[in-house]
Amino acid sequence: MVMNLDSMPILCPFFTKCDGVLLFGSVGGPKEFHPRDRTGAKLACDLILELKPRRLICGFIDEPEKEKLRAAGIDVRLGSCNCSVDDLVSSFPSLPRA
Question: Taking the complete model, does pTM exceed 0.85, yes or no?
Fold first, then answer.
């Protein structure tokens, strides 16, 4: 869940405020940005469910959205907005579960 800041994606601190989802094929691999309609949390969940990632890193996520994503088999973790997106992806196993 990212915001595009100065043409560089950063982790968005709030689930409902993100610009979109940045998908990684693998650590250091190709990245794909998928923009979202910014009208609400439900739409962010729907976009994520359509993309079918195995893992998700977010700065904050409300309980209903977190449970919906976990029920779909997505491993949801929390990351610091002070870290680069690449660093967060490479340290995924050590990030706290949401």
Answer: yes
